[in-house]
């Protein structure tokens, strides 16, 4: 049921997004828009020695897109490029291939596991990961 997807933790995460706004001098900015639902995420990143040192984002998405962006914002600073690429891959596998939820500091992404049963919701949930991965790979 959709009630499992839009659980209290998802609503709480969506309501508490940190690092909202834009950076003055990002290394890279990327905007991604879901063609399916119109959700939009813009990320600004500063990298130093393959580690994210600064991050900001603008999020115009449903509660699922907001929740995944909230988790990203809580964990991205101090993360390495390799770690972020792996987390993006794990999220895709979790939703599309019934893979396990990420662990460690990224374990809150497990709250998004019920989304796997709703393909139409994958796009907004994965948008922040797509934007971050593009930004870190193009740097």
Keywords:
alpha+beta, globular, 18% strand
Order of helices and strands: HHEEEHHH
Q: How can the largest sheet be summarized?
A: 3 strands, antiparallel
Which structural category do the helix and sheet elements fall into? Answer: alpha+beta
Terminal residue distance: 40 Å
Low-confidence parts? none
Instruction: Give the overall pLDDT as a whole number.
Output: 93
In total, the number of strands is 3
The percentage helix is 40-55%
In what range is the share of β-strand residues?
15-25%
Radius of gyration: 14 Å
Counted by DSSP, the helix tally is 5
Structure description:
This protein has 139 residues and is of the alpha+beta class. It has 5 helices and 3 strands, in the order H-H-E-E-E-H-H-H. Strands 1-2-3 form a 3-stranded antiparallel beta sheet. Helix 4 runs antiparallel to helix 5 (119-137). The mean pLDDT is 93.
Secondary-structure blueprint:
Elements: H1 2-5, H2 8-15, E1 28-33, E2 40-48, E3 51-60, H3 63-75, H4 81-96, H5 119-137
Antiparallel strand pairs: 1-2, 2-3
Helix pairs in contact: 2-3, 3-5, 4-5
In short:
By secondary structure, the chain is α+β, with helices and mostly antiparallel strands. The protein contains 5 helices and 3 strands.
